[in-house]
Amino acid sequence: MKKRIAYCGLDCEKCDAYLATVHNDQSLREKTAKRWSELNHITILPEDIRCEGCRANGVKTVFCAKLCAVRQCALKKGVNTCGDCAQLPTCPTVGKIIKNNPDALKNLKS
After folding, report:
1. Residues 6+ away with beta carbon under 8 Å from 90
2. Residue 63 domain-assigned (yes or no)
3. Phi/psi zone of residue 48: left (φ > 0), alpha (ψ -120 to 50 degrees), beta?
4. Which among 60, 67, 79, 91 is least surrounded, fewest beta carbons within 10 Å?
5. Can you name the residues that pair with 11 across neighbouring β-strands?
6. pTM of the predicted model, to two decimals?
C-alpha cells in the first residue's frame, strides 16, 4: 500500500491540500480554501491548507488532524488503515467515504 493512502482509503497524493503543500502553491491554497469554505459553510483560510498526508508525520489540515472521525477511530484502534479493521464491511463512518469514492475501497484492499 502506498504511504499516502489515508486511513479511509482516499489517496492523499490527489488531495489539493497535499498538492498545495508539497508544491508550495499559494494559488492552489487560495482556490482550495475558497472551495472548501463554500462546500462546508465555514471559513477556511489559505494558511489552513497545509497537509503532508493523513498517515504521514508532519502537518495536517485541522479537519484531518482533529475532526476526521475515521482517522480518530483508526488511531484509537491502532490499525494501519480501515482495511485492517474487521468492521470495515459494516462501518457507517468510512462507508460514507467509500460510497462517494469507490477507489477508496480498492486502495484499502490493495
Report:
1. none
2. yes
3. alpha
4. 67
5. 5
6. 0.84
Q: How far, CA to CA in Å, does 21 sit from each of 14, 15, 61?
A: 12, 10, 10
- Asked if residue 6 belongs to a domain, the reply is no
Residue 5, domain member (yes or no): no
C-alpha to C-alpha distance for 40 and 57, rounded to whole angstroms: 26
Structure-block grid coordinates of residue 16: 489539493
Residue 80 is assigned to a structural domain of this protein: yes
Distance between start and end Cα atoms, the chain = 6
Contact of 103 with 29, CB cutoff 8 Å:
no
Domains of the chain: total: 1
What confidence tens digit (pLDDT) does each residue in 73-110 have? 999 999 999 999 999 999 999 998 999 899 999 999 88
Q: Which domain holds residue 67?
A: 12-109
